Amino acid sequence: MDSTRITEILTDPVTSDLVERQPIMQIAYAAADGSPRAVPVGYLLREGKFLFFTIPSSDKVAALHRDPRIALTIDIFPPPCCLLVRGTVELREEQGVPDQYLEASFRTMPEDQHAGFEQQVRALYDSMMRVEVTPSWVRLNDFQRTAPRAVERLVQAKQG
Known about the structure:
Layout: H1 3-10, H2 13-21, E1 24-30, E2 36-42, E3 44-46, E4 49-54, H3 59-66, E5 69-76, E6 81-95, H4 99-106, H5 114-124, E7 127-141, H6 149-159
Antiparallel strand pairs: 1-2, 1-5, 3-4, 4-7, 5-6, 6-7
């Protein structure tokens, strides 16, 4: 998929609304033993890349070092809407607790919990792994303009 089309989808108003409303995405990757893994994470979308943070010694970091391919989905109901992404990760360890980690985390909780959460994580983490996902393929299924490809093919077959 070309980068222009990826940018069009990631900057679509429906995508922007979806990202604003849903602070958790599901990531999928191949674990060390080759089995599939899916994990929910808080995230940010910045300049066409998805960003999340994790513990440097986590199993997902080890797995993503071995195989940097990743898939993610962001979805919300009702009405149904989902963004599907495939891409590769870049991993970089950062000292302390990055502000962007806090920004992503704060999206998942009431404002009156921010200070306590920040105090806890700053005491816990000496460093965090920055995981930046560069999309190579994206699809927005808003069920108004687009639906899963299999559904679109079925509709076309029934009409033709």
